[in-house]
Amino acid sequence: MGRNNDFSDLLGIAALIVVILNTLLAIFYFVFQLMGIWPFGDLSVRLWELVNIVFWICWLVALYTFCPPFRAVMFLTWKAAFRFRLFWVLAALLMGSVVVLPLLLKDDGTARGFTQILLTYTLSVITGLLGLSTLWLSCGTLARDVEEAQIQMIVVKPIARWQIWLGKWLGIMALNATLLALTGGCVYALLQWRAQKLPTQPVDQQAILRNEVLVARASLKEKMPDIEGDTDRVMATRLKDATANPGNLKFVREQIREQVKSVHQVVAPNHLRRFTIDLGWRKDSLRDTPLFVRLRFNAASTNALGTYRVVIEAGPVESPARRSRTDYFSADTFHEFAIPPNLFDESGVLTIDVQNRSGVALLFPLEDGMEVLYRDGSFGLNFARGLGIIFCWLALMASLGLASASFLSFPVAAFFSMSLLIVGLSTGTLSSAVESGTVMGVNEETGVAGSSAVDRVLIPFFKGIVGVFKLVQSFSPIDALSTGRSITWGQLGLAFTQIVLLLGGVISLAGIIIFTRRELASAQTSS
């Protein structure tokens, strides 16, 4: 037993060192990101993610293998979930919500409508139910053990408090993994079964489903122009010729920025916009592979029909292989169509010309106005990676619930955790305040933002909150799966690093420290 304790202490010290190093490296990385530079390249970030993932997997395996008390806490957490019938109640709720109710849902008979309804509904329900139950169980399993003095029967044994805390976390995550795998398998089977009922006439919706929806498709876009740099150059030129009120400089810069963006986005009537998309190293693997063009635009004004004539030509300029398509497209809607393979040149550059043959100006947003999609893998593996990101979200909620229960009673810990969750879901309001630079609002007539002494305190605070929650909200597996977008291993690794290791690690470290220093007897007496 002494050897096991010594080994577990070494594991604890190693984990603490790695968490501190990760926190310092993350601060270092975000400081450089705010400055707009990263001198070490993307490869260093990927290497950092890979080393972290390998270390923590090996660390957990070693802890589980060589520390029997840690395993005992895990199994006690499982027994508590079964004793309170939480597992069976939650399994019944999930199965009823993602299997029985979807059988009653009706779609519009199209492949995209079918997946949007089924996948969006089922995965949202799974995430919501498992997320709330994880918060409730993580708060209850530790707080109630402390309040009912059951934890004192464990701490007197040769087991460190950080092992108790982490054992409960891993027990909750094992429960989540079981339920997530069970419901995920049911959703996948239901999706495949209902897909067979899609019509094949007059349009083969099953073929669309196999080729465009139930796949993992990656996206290629034109290289983003240097909007900020161009804006700074134009503004510097104008300030040489005229003076501006210092209070209006921010407003003037924003106006210039919109003008610079319009040069790249707006296609005037009877004008052409050329998109050049570099396939890079993928050009060899994409030979003889059909590609899909996805476009969206906004119209300056609406017409009677609500559609606009656009001519699209793809392929090398003045090449006989160039292909042309003329069609009427509606605004504010994504349109997608296939183009023949091998339309890129020898260097791997695909040229797409968009001619506006309507009577009004069309605006193609830089973010999603034009992109090329290609098949990057199977839907099954993509679906598993999407569930992996949801699992990372659940890991963060378990850390938050246990950290709250480390110093609060069960009802207060649950309320505190839910409050933080609500704040995280309302970051849109905070982002608007950060973008405008004030909480006082913007004068609609002059366009100038208000200013007060409160802004100097709240805006940096809001910016920090938004930055923290963006670590979690920057991943959207449900949207990606329902639209056939690829979730790469890199994205899953980044989600694990940002959500579980970085944010969850900091919260877990704080919870473990508080729980280690807490007087359990006084907590039981006060309750």
Strand content: 5-15%
> End-to-end distance, in Å?
34 Å
* Proportion in helices: 55-70%
Q: How does the helix and strand content classify structurally?
A: alpha+beta
Shape by Cα distribution:
globular
Total of helices:
17
What is the CA-based Rg, rounded?
27 Å
Low-pLDDT parts are: none
Can you walk through the features of this model?
This protein is α+β, with helices and mostly antiparallel strands. The protein has 3 domains: 1-66; 69-215 and 379-425 and 477-526, no CATH class; 220-377, Jelly Rolls, CATH 2.60.120. It is built from 17 helices and 11 strands. The chain has helices spanning 2-34, 41-66, 68-83, 86-104, 111-147, 152-155, 161-195, 205-213, 227-241, 249-265, 379-405, 410-425, 427-436, 455-473, 477-482, 489-517, 520-526; strands at 215-220, 266-267, 272-278, 291-295, 298-299, 307-314, 323-330, 335-339, 349-356, 362-363, 370-378. The strands form 3 sheets. Strands 1-11-4-8 form a 4-stranded antiparallel β-sheet. Strands 3-9-6-7 form a 4-stranded antiparallel β-sheet, with no helix packed on it. A 3-stranded antiparallel β-sheet has the order 2-10-5. Strand 6 (307-314) and strand 7 form a beta hairpin. Helix 9 (227-241) crosses helix 10 (249-265). It is globular. The chain starts with a helix and ends with a helix. The mean pLDDT is 80.
What order do the helices and strands come in, and which of them pair?
Elements lengths: L1 H33 L6 H26 L1 H16 L2 H19 L6 H37 L4 H4 L5 H35 L9 H9 L1 E6 L6 H15 L7 H17 E2 L4 E7 L12 E5 L2 E2 L7 E8 L8 E8 L4 E5 L9 E8 L5 E2 L6 E9 H27 L4 H16 L1 H10 L18 H19 L3 H6 L6 H29 L2 H7 L1
Antiparallel strand pairs: 1-11, 2-10, 3-9, 4-8, 4-11, 5-10, 6-7, 6-9
Helix pairs in contact: 1-2, 1-16, 2-16, 3-7, 4-5, 4-7, 5-7, 5-11, 5-12, 7-11, 7-16, 9-10, 11-12, 11-16, 13-14
